[in-house]
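[Discussion] Sanity-checking designs against the backbone

I'm trying to build intuition for which residues belong where. Below is a structure token string of 238 positions. I'd appreciate it if someone posts a full sequence so I can compare it with mine line by line.
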């Protein structure tokens, strides 16, 4: 199947028509697939997107821009929290190889993967499983995946904010990365340590976080490690 860019543009234009929702906690922010601010500059004019007439003016301009972009260009225009949702939306129009490139390029910009209200955990897993692993990962990561043992150790740093998400998708092979996530923002969180099976792996991702996406089975046991324990250096070597 060849990637259908026209269908992808039509999908993007449908999202452009979504309501611009003010963020109740932060008045200077808003929720929309193509903007995170209630204001926009167009032709040196500052538009208030909470006003229908000015929002229409912005949408008209954005419609013209989207119609000229390729798939990657549309993703660059998007508000990052909506990129994974959009990738799921346009999956039927994407060749496997093109899906893999988009996934690898834009996954790092997606925050709160397991808290996306537009996608369930299961729908994200189905999305990743719809692509052959040799397309989902680049050549180096795919070779690393092939060399994985049947059982290996992974880690996840959590804080009170996200510790309820026991079946989170994103893990790391580097305990120091997990420690950073458990203690960032000055919090005293927890590191989860788990033994997982190769067959659960969805993808290995390049980058400093040594991220591994895993379909964690229900009830999988984890060991809790205190990242601020005085014996931290000993536990790091275990």
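Best answer:
Here's mine. Compare freely.
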């Amino acid at each position: 199947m060849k990637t259908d860019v026209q269908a992808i543009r039509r999908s993007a234009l449908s999202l452009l028509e979504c309501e611009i929702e003010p963020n109740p906690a932060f008045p200077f922010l808003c929720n929309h697939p193509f903007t995170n601010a209630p204001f926009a500059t167009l032709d040196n004019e500052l538009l208030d997107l909470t006003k229908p007439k000015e929002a229409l003016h912005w949408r008209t301009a954005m419609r013209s821009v989207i119609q000229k972009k390729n798939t990657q260009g549309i993703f660059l225009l998007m508000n990052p929290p909506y990129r994974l949702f959009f990738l799921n939306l346009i999956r039927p129009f994407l060749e496997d190889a093109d899906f893999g490139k988009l996934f690898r390029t834009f996954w790092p910009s997606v925050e709160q993967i397991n808290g996306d209200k537009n996608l369930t955990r299961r729908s994200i897993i189905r999305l990743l499983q719809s692509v052959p692993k040799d397309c989902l990962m680049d050549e180096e990561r795919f070779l690393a995946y092939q060399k994985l043992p049947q059982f290996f150790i992974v880690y996840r740093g959590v804080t009170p904010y996200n510790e309820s998400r026991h079946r989170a998708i994103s893990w790391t092979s580097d305990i120091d990365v997990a420690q950073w996530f458990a203690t960032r923002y000055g919090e005293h969180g927890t590191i989860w340590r788990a033994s997982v099976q190769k067959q659960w792996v969805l993808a290995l991702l390049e980058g400093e976080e040594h991220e591994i996406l895993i379909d964690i089975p229900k009830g999988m046991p984890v060991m809790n490690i205190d990242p601020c324990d005085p014996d931290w250096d000993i536990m790091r070597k275990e």
